[in-house]
Design goal:
The protein contains four helices and three strands. It is mainly alpha-helical. Strands 1-3-2 form a three-stranded antiparallel β-sheet. Helix 1 packs across helix 2 and helix 3 packs across helix 4. The protein is globular and about 50 Å long. The protein starts with 11 loop residues before the first strand and ends with a helix.
């Protein structure tokens, strides 16, 4: 699960988001309805357009539900109780994973 956030891009379609997370768009819509931290804009056609902040929050939700096995209620509670702490930990984990990948690539080039 990885979505490359572009500095120039302000919004991502639900199709782009679903593809990046390798899930159905219906799951993204479901999570949008379930989690208050997601606030995608809707265009004139009513399609959801996700901001980079929404993407970060979706990554956190995905991490809690899909990778750590939280129930939806458990994930909601976890986010409400420690949203800032959870986000900080999540960012640290993601940065460490990026560093590990870079180090592995360097090792393989030696």
């Amino acid at each position: 699960m990885h979505i490359e956030l572009s500095k120039d891009k302000r919004y991502y379609s639900i199709g782009e988001v679903a593809k990046a997370f390798d899930v159905n768009a219906s799951l993204i819509r479901f999570w949008d309805n379930e989690f208050d931290i997601l606030k995608p804009k809707k265009n004139a056609k009513g399609n959801r357009m996700f901001t980079p902040e929404d993407i970060t929050n979706l990554q956190l939700i995905y991490h809690l539900v899909k990778e750590r096995g939280f129930t939806l209620e458990g994930a909601k509670t976890h986010l409400k109780e420690g949203q800032k702490k959870a986000l900080d930990k999540f960012e640290i984990i993601r940065k460490l994973e990026t560093i590990r990948t870079q180090l592995t690539n360097i090792k393989n080039e030696l």
